[in-house]
Design a protein that fits this description.
The longest helix is centred in the last third of the chain and has 28 residues. With about 450 residues, the chain is an alpha+beta fold. The chain is built from eleven helices and 20 strands. The two termini are about 40 Å apart. Helix 1 runs parallel beside helix 4, helix 2 runs parallel beside helix 8 and helix 8 runs antiparallel to helix 9. Its cofactor is FAD. This is FAD-binding domain-containing protein. InterPro entries: FAD-bd, FAD/NAD-bd_sf, RIFMO-like.
């Protein structure tokens, strides 16, 4: 049963994922307590989805006093390795970031744990997410042209001066306000081979042994024009991930793998047999169940969670508009792209923190001058739109590099582009300049 909502609020946050929760915490940090945060589902997400919080995002979270809880739970990642099925090609070490930040690492932590930590922090400050409340309509208030009446499925209405749409890729707020949402390069698939993927959290029996199983390293395998990502969680998050009531000390591993179009569309929740086939076909040799590849074969034991999805890029035509109130889009409501590089949730969290800074300034300016214009809000929106375009471009570049073919490029070139890429990475990967540039690109420090 839906909870009773207040009739009025200064700020209404719609969506309690990482972006919405961060926005709420940022409001409190800025001494803005007149807000309501709602979500359409009855309880928070229990899937792990995003797994990396990069350096720039940790700094942003620290600026509003909410990084410590995440740092105490997550695994401080040392590097990202680019590998073949049996050997290492290149390693992006995060150590060079020491010159730029007090957080020279990527924090590996499942999204469900990130949300839980943020939720607990919010509750400790006396704020609850109001659930379940699904927005079904918005219209300008008849008495105040700077207020929007937001109506919910259960008939309740909240009148708000600012509305933050953090309600995901299928955003109701975006739809109601009529904001377009499309690929900035046009309505076509840029990288067809990596257009669909599966992701899963799994355990093995027996537990695999090999360099890729060491904690603190994310492994990205390039093989036959495919991409297979493998991240060991150890047993750090078993209490949050293994929800069947059976305590286990087994290591949990995250996989993410592209599925060639020719293989058909993956199931929305792939079963264990499907995931086993993906691991055997595309994964590192040391986690294969095929004795011809792995002298110590292992099998997928427990399928903790799985998801099949299509990858595409899209960005909202604008992230700020007015429908009476100032309406904003943050996170997936404002932009989506491939998960390669782990940039999506990071951008969403930083969006939320910087948005609250702009809203705070606008509220203060409005208190001094009720007729203040929207310059502050428009400048924020334009800056974040530009950032999102940069990140989308960055992830598309990573996709293209990851999908280069090993087949011969042409009759006059006996090797494929992927082989040339691998050779260049093997030769130059140890150079400090290359290490620093790669770590900087992933960290988000240049795209805050």
């Amino acid at each position: 049963m839906s909870e009773s909502l207040p009739e009025n609020t200064t700020v209404l946050i719609v969506g309690a994922g990482p972006a919405g929760l961060t926005a709420a915490l940022a409001l409190i940090h800025n001494n803005l307590h007149d807000f309501v945060i709602v979500d359409a589902i009855s309880e928070g997400s229990n899937s792990s989805r995003s797994v990396a919080i990069h350096c720039a995002t940790i700094e942003a979270l620290a600026s509003i006093g909410v990084a410590d809880g995440l740092l105490s739970q997550g695994i401080k990642g040392k590097s990202i390795r680019i590998i073949s099925r049996s050997s290492q090609i290149f390693e992006v070490k995060f150590d060079p970031l020491k010159k730029h930040s007090t957080h020279p690492y990527a924090l590996f932590i499942p999204q469900c744990v990130t949300e839980l930590v943020l939720m607990q922090k919010l509750q400790s400050l006396g704020v609850q997410v109001q659930r379940p409340h699904r927005v079904v309509g918005m219209k300008q208030n008849e008495k105040d042209s700077r207020v929007t009446d937001v109506s919910f499925e259960d008939g309740q209405v909240i009148s708000a001066r600012y509305v933050i749409g953090a309600d995901g890729a299928r955003s109701t707020i975006r739809t109601i306000t009529g904001i377009g949402f499309s690929d900035p390069e046009g309505p076509h698939v840029v990288n067809e081979e990596l257009a669909q993927m599966v992701s899963a959290d799994i355990t093995f029996e027996p537990e695999p042994v090999g360099p890729v199983t060491l904690e603190g390293h994310l492994n990205a395998e390039v093989f036959s024009g495919n991409l297979f990502i493998f991240l060991p969680f150890g047993n750090h998050f078993n209490a949050q991930l293994l929800r069947d009531g059976k305590p286990s000390t087994k290591s949990v591993f995250r996989i993410l793998c592209s599925i060639p179009i020719k293989n058909g569309e993956p199931p929305r929740a792939p079963p264990k047999e499907y995931i086993q086939n993906v691991v055997d076909t595309y994964g590192p040799a040391c986690i294969s169940s095929d004795p011809s590849l792995n002298p110590n074969p292992v099998k997928v034991d427990q399928l903790v969670w799985s998801s099949g999805f299509r990858t595409h890029s899209a960005i909202a035509d604008r992230t700020f508009t007015r429908l009476g109130a100032a309406i904003f889009l943050v996170g997936d409501a404002a932009h989506i792209h491939s998960p390669i590089g782990g940039q999506g949730m990071n951008l969403a969290i930083r969006d939320a923190i910087f948005l609250v800074e702009a809203v705070t300034k606008h509220i203060q300016a409005s208190a001094e001058n009720p007729d203040v214009d929207d310059t502050i809000l428009q400048e924020f929106a334009e800056a974040r739109h530009a950032r999102a375009l940069e990140v989308i471009g960055f992830t598309k570049t990573l996709l293209k590099l990851g999908n280069l073919p090993y087949d011969s490029y042409a009759w006059w070139m006996p090797v494929g582009l992927a082989s040339i890429r691998d050779l260049i990475l093997r030769i130059f990967g140890g150079w400090n300049f290359v290490q620093s540039k790669a770590a900087w690109g992933l960290s988000g420090l240049g795209r805050r």
